Task: inverse folding
């Protein structure tokens, strides 16, 4: 979106749902809504049911900071990541901490896991404390979660994923483009019997599906795919390679949904006496620090987490100050870092 758009407060773009809205929807006074929230035993069951139905329908989350000795802004920003295990998101978190700190904000990190109910519960707790911004990993939220976020009026930045319908602002990364690029990369290196070891989260599934489609479009046999519980591990890589070989003995390339899983595949390949990359090529995802120092070193898909963190900080700060960022949707690129494993 053009940067010459008139400056607007965040409430004018995405106004938060208020007690007044809930009272109007329930057909009661605002004081009744307050009582239903704070002292539900003081409200009749029928009225409580009407108020709760309105809260649910509107996605209202009570402001837990209301009435405290608080300025109109909290100077707090929350980032939600599915896991803090490993270091896939550490570059983003480090850059967010540094960039927001320079602007006078403190960062709070929340671990949402890979299931939507856990994220919804965490979102309610976060929204109730009214941070100045929320940075989310991914765009796969439940309908309730999306409603909560839209109704909050809080500036939102979704990251590490792509969608045509962002909640607010988006740092877009196409996992389908990644899967396709890796399959083509392996094909260019003469790898014709490709396979995938992937986590069971939505982003890993998108990469795997696109990888399979691309391989088949290139005229290759349909790649074997195994999904394992996320976050993925070194042990899953070892076990996953054995499972793939049981399905097809002559696999010559494996795309893994994490570098940690790729390291496990390499370990198992060495144990079996396979030559890497001649007998088996391996590609990971995330370009974690150890990928370059492994022996053989791991070819991996690099995504600039630091750039994501810095851009998200700029977007949050602009919106928290009633301004529009230069762009509300920004494409985040990736590239394949070729190393010894391919």
Result:
């Amino acid at each position: 979106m053009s940067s010459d758009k008139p400056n607007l407060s965040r409430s004018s773009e995405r106004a938060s749902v208020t007690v007044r809205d809930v009272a109007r929807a329930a057909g009661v006074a605002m004081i009744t809504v307050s009582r239903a929230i704070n002292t539900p035993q003081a409200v009749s069951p029928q009225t409580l049911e009407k108020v709760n139905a309105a809260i649910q329908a509107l996605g209202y989350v009570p402001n837990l900071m209301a009435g405290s000795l608080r300025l109109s802004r909290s100077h707090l920003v929350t980032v939600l990541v599915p896991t803090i295990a490993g270091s896939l998101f550490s570059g983003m978190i480090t850059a967010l901490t540094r960039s927001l700190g320079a602007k006078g904000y403190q960062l709070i990190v929340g671990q949402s896991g890979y299931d939507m109910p856990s994220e919804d519960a965490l979102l309610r707790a976060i929204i109730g404390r009214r941070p100045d911004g929320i940075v989310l990993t991914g765009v796969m939220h439940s309908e309730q979660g999306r409603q909560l976020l839209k109704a909050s009026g809080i500036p939102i930045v979704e990251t590490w994923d792509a969608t045509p319908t962002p909640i607010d602002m988006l740092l877009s990364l196409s996992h389908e483009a990644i899967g396709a690029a890796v399959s083509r990369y392996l094909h260019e290196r003469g790898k014709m019997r490709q396979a995938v070891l992937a986590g069971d989260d939505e982003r890993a599934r998108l990469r795997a599906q696109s990888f399979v489609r691309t391989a088949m479009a290139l005229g290759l046999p349909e790649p074997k795919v195994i999904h394992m519980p996320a976050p993925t591990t070194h042990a899953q890589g070892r076990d996953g390679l054995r499972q793939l070989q049981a399905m097809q003995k002559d696999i010559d390339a494996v795309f893994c949904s994490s570098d940690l899983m790729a390291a496990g595949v390499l370990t198992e390949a060495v144990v079996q006496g396979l030559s890497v990359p001649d007998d088996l090529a391996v590609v990971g995802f995330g370009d974690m620090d150890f990928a370059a120092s492994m022996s053989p070193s791991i070819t991996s898909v690099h995504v600039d987490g630091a750039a994501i963190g810095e851009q998200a900080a700029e977007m949050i700060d602009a919106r928290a100050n009633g301004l529009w960022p230069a762009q509300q949707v920004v494409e985040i690129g990736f590239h394949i870092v070729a190393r010894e494993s391919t």
